[in-house]
Specification:
Layout: E1 3-4, H1 5-8, E2 14-23, E3 26-29, E4 31-32, E5 46-48, E6 51-59, E7 62-67, E8 78-83, H2 85-109, E9 116-119, E10 124-129, H3 138-150, E11 156-159, E12 167-171, E13 174-177, E14 192-200, E15 203-210
Parallel strand pairs: 1-4
Antiparallel strand pairs: 2-3, 2-8, 3-7, 5-6, 5-8, 6-7, 9-10, 10-15, 11-12, 12-13, 14-15
Helix pairs in contact: 2-3
The structure holds zinc ion.
Length: 212
């Protein structure tokens, strides 16, 4: 099992770890700060001992890192993991923002169920089964989201006592399950801009971008 330091402290930019297995260019570590694509959140970018990580995947409770080339370190060696902090921090802001927009969309419309969601370094998105263009709803959702963000609410992400490995995200009156990485305070997000995208056939997408 890889200890997920990105949950304990999502602000870590590098860490020491031990290589618990090295198989060609595939490496497993005892602990890591490098987030592997999960729950719609894009993987981090980064290196192990300076070698680029091409891919990170979840294998049960373990994370497997595929390196650009076979490393010169071996099983049992101490290694240094570094992540692209600018990318990660934008993902943290956008992921926390996506939850906030989702909650305010529900407050406005009563609609909670989504049919898809995704967070990348550039934008986050939330998809709904929704019969009409959502464009007229967005200004109010955007305004409410930005007001909440500016109010500087604490964001808590913590282990669910009822189910090991499950995580809870909470800010003010909002709460949901989430295993992603998040900012500690909504004020870090800055400001968001919402944009509608028509997916056709009664499906609507809200795109969330950082705007300052
Ligand atoms: Zn989430």
């Amino acid at each position: 099992m890889t200890k997920k330091l990105f949950w304990e402290d999502p602000y870590l930019k590098e860490c020491e770890a031990k290589a618990v297995s090295v198989n060609g260019n595939e490496v497993k570590l005892d602990r890591s700060i490098f987030y592997a694509f999960s729950g719609g959140q894009q993987s981090d970018s980064g290196t192990i001992n300076g070698i680029n990580i091409l891919e990170a995947r979840k294998n049960g409770e373990e994370l497997v890192y595929v390196l650009e080339k076979a490393p010169d370190f071996r099983e049992g060696d101490a290694v240094k993991v570094s992540i692209d902090w600018n990318k990660r921090y934008r993902i943290m802001k956008l992921h926390s923002a996506a939850h906030i927009v989702w909650f305010f969309f529900e407050k406005k419309t009563g609609k909670k169920e989504i049919i898809g969601s995704n967070v990348t370094v550039d934008k986050a998105r939330i998809d709904y089964d929704w019969p009409d263009p959502i464009t007229p709803l967005l200004p109010e959702v955007e305004e409410n989201s930005n007001r909440f963000i500016a109010e500087g609410h604490e964001v808590k992400a913590y282990d669910d006592a009822e189910k090991p490995g499950r995580r809870i995200w909470e800010s003010a009156e909002f709460k949901t399950f989430c295993g992603g990485t998040h900012v500690k305070n909504t004020s870090e997000i800055g400001k968001v801009k919402l944009k509608r995208k028509n997916l056709g056939a009664g499906k609507e997408r809200i795109e969330i971008m950082l705007s300052g």
